[in-house]
Amino acid sequence: MPLSTAEPEALASPTQAAPDPPTGPAQFESWGRYPKYNAKVVPLNWRGDFPAVLASAHGSVLPVGLGRSYGDVCLLKDGTLLQTTGMSRFIDFDPATGILTAESGISLAQILDFAVPRGFFLPVTPGTKYVTLGGAIANDIHGKNHEVAGSFGNHVPCFELVRSDGSRKLCSRTENPDWYAATIGGLGLTGLISWAQLRLRPIVSRGIDYEGIQFHGFDEFLELKRTYSHVEYTVSWLDCVSTGKNFMRGIFMLGDHAKVPGELKPSPEPKLVFPFDAPAFALNRFSVSAFNTVFFHKQGKAHVKAVHDYEPFFYPLDAVLRWNRLYGSRGLVQFQYALPWESSKEGTIALLQAIAKSGLASFLAVLKAFGDIPSLGLMSFPMPGIMFALDFPIKPGITFPLLQRLGDMTLDYGGRLYPAKDAAMTAPQFQTFYPEWQRFARFRDPMLTSSFWERVTDSTGAKPTL
Length: 466
Ligand SMILES: Cc1cc2nc3c(=O)[nH]c(=O)nc-3n(C[C@H](O)[C@H](O)[C@H](O)COP(=O)(O)OP(=O)(O)OC[C@H]3O[C@@H](n4cnc5c(N)ncnc54)[C@H](O)[C@@H]3O)c2cc1C
Prior knowledge:
By secondary structure, the chain is α+β, with helices and mostly antiparallel strands. It has helices at about 50, 110-115, 135-140, 145-150, 175-185, 220-225, 285-295, 310-315, 340-360, 400-410, 425-435, 435-440, 450-455; strands at about 40-45, 60-65, 80-85, 90-95, 100-105, 120, 160, 170, 190-200, 200, 205-215, 235-240, 250-255, 270-275, 305-310, 320, 330-340, 365-370, 385-395, 415. The strands form five sheets. It has an eight-stranded antiparallel beta sheet with strand order 15-11-13-12-18-19-17-20. Strands 4-5-9-7-8 form a five-stranded antiparallel beta sheet, covered by helices on one side. A three-stranded parallel beta sheet has the order 1-3-2, with no helix packed on it. Helix 9 (about 340-360) runs antiparallel to helix 10 (about 400-410). Flavin-adenine dinucleotide (FAD) binds near residues 104, 135 and 188.
C-alpha cells in the first residue's frame, strides 16, 4: 500500500477511460454542453507532470476528468484544463481488503473491467461509469445506495494531493484531515488528486435481483422506501409532466447484488452512438408525455421481479454514447436538489407542480432518499432527506428564469443544489446552500479555479442570462 508521497510503481495500464465516439468533441465540453467556453486542454500523462506543466499554461488552471459534470464545475473560461485521463494506471490491489490504489484519471469503467472478474464491485457508483476516480472524489458523488453506503468519499481511505507549489500531501482521516475533508467534494480547487485508494466490495455475480413497483404520489413512494429499507439500491423514475390523478406517478426500482454465484466477465463496449444534434423541436411536452406514459406502463404489471445484469440496472444511459445530443446543440441543464426530511414532502410537491406547470420537463427524472451517513467532505452535496434530479432542454428566455425560481424555492425549503449538475445557481444561492464555503476557500490552491467557482463567489451575484 503506497502510504508515502513517493511515486508508487504502476501495476498495469488499463484500456481507454471511455470509448471514443467516432466524432470526438472539438473542444472540452461538460455533459450539458452549456456553457461553451474556450480553454486550452493540456493532457496529464504522468503523476510528475503537475505542477511542471504550469510553466507553459497561461492564467489559472483546473484539473478535469471525463467532463461528465453537467455545467461549469469542470470548465474554465479562457484558462487551461489539465485533463487527467492519461494518468490511468492501476498501482496496487489487495484482494484481502478490497483496497484498490490507482491514478486519479482512471475511469470507473476501467475499474469495473479490472474488479468484476476478480469478484469485486464499486462501493458507490453514479448513473454513468464514464467518470474518473479523481472526478468522483472531487464531486463526492452518490449512488443508489446512499442510505446504506453514504457517498463516494466514505470509501476513499486516502489519496495524494499535489499543490501548484509542488508540495505533496498524503490525505486521510488521520493524516492532513483538514485537506482530506476539503478535497472530498472540493470541486478540483484544492490541488490535483494524483492517485487515490478506493475500498471495493465483494460480489459473486454480475446479476442484480431487481424489482420494479409502480406508485402514485409521495406517500406511496415513502411507504415503499420504508418497506424496502433492507434493500441496498433504490431509486425511482418519476413522471414530471402528468398532472391530475397521474401527478407524481413513478416506478420504484430496487435491487441487491445477486447472492447466487454467476458470471463475472467484463462488460462489452457499447456500440450505439447518438448520431447528430437533434433539432430543437424534438423534445416537447407531447413527445415527453408520450415517452412517460410508455415508460410507466412498460413493465406490464404493477410489480415485476427479475434478475438483471448490472449494466442496464446501474448504467442504462451508457448504452448510447453521446445521448446528450438528443437535446440539440444548445445543450441541456440539470436541476438537482436535496431537501431535508422536514420539508421533503411539501417542498417536492411544490417544486414538481412548478415544473409540471412550466411544460419544460424532460423524461429523465429521478427521485431518491438520502440516508444519514455523514459525508466526509466539507462541501459535499448529500443531506439526509430527499434528492430529486431532472434534465431540462435549454430554451432561451424560459429555462433560466425557471431554474432561478426553482433554486429560490429549494432555498426556502432549506435544501441545496448540486454543483456537479449546475449551470444556474447564483452566488447568493450557493453561499446559503454551502455556508462553509468561506472556510473551504482557505484550502483553494491559488493557481486553481473554475468557471463555477468564479460564478458562485462573484459578489455581484450575476445570473446566467440565456
Ligand atoms: C449520465 C450521468 C449520470 C450521472 N449520475 C450521477 C449520480 O447518480 N450521482 C452523482 O453524484 N453524479 C452523477 N453524475 C455526475 C458525475 O458523476 C460527476 O459530475 C463526476 O464528478 C464526473 O466525473 P468526471 O471524471 O467526468 O469529472 P469532470 O466532470 O471532468 O470534473 C468534475 C470535477 O472534478 C474535478 N477533478 C477531476 N479530476 C480531478 C483530479 N484528478 N484532481 C482534482 N480534481 C479533479 C474537476 O475540477 C471538477 O471540479 C452523472 C453524470 C452523467 C453524465
